[in-house]
Specification:
- The structure is a single chain.
- With about 150 residues, this protein is of the alpha/beta class.
- It contains five helices and five strands, in the order βααβαβαββα.
- A five-stranded parallel beta sheet has the order 2-1-3-4-5, sandwiched between helices.
- Helix 3 runs parallel beside helix 4.
- The radius of gyration is 14 Å and the shape is globular.
Length: about 150
């Protein structure tokens, strides 16, 4: 693993996360991810951060495969695909980069179908339920900020 000062980490967000700040603010808050990403870059200047979002399952799989052999880590919030996509789970299993599964809400306090994850069995870890701070906690795994 490379030194933290040169670690390349990509955050990949799935469906409907482009609506953060507008969508169900009682669950997801009032901040857009783009605004929060600026905060994360300031909070973790020792990490080389990149961000990608798509509502399309195949694009998420393509990005995981594209970055999954060259990046030091992937933080993935696959949204609803977490509970439905065997393909995303298989993509994570196939790559070399560690993947941390992230969720803004506590998926276990929501509908029963959200308790199943096709990502968790192949992820290095899972962070959920801390709002947008779930991303910062996941980044701390790749940083010296514990």
């Amino acid at each position: 693993m490379l030194r933290a000062s040169s670690m390349k980490i990509i955050i990949i967000n799935g469906p409907n996360l482009n609506l953060l700040g507008k969508r169900e603010p009682d669950v997801y808050g009032n901040t857009s991810f783009e605004d929060y990403f600026t905060t994360l870059k300031k909070q973790f200047p020792n990490l080389d951060l990149e961000y990608f979002q798509s509502n399309i399952e195949g694009e998420l799989i393509g990005k995981i495969q594209e970055k999954g052999f060259d990046y030091d880590g992937i933080i993935l919030n696959a949204g609803a695909y977490t509970h439905t996509s065997i393909g995303i789970g298989d993509a994570i299993k196939a790559i070399a980069s560690p993947v941390l599964e992230v969720h803004i809400s506590n998926t276990f306090s929501r509908e029963a179908f959200r308790h199943q994850s096709y990502i968790s069995p192949n992820a290095a870890g899972v962070v959920l339920g801390f709002g947008l701070k779930s991303y910062a906690l996941a980044l701390a795994y790749f940083s010296d900020k514990y």
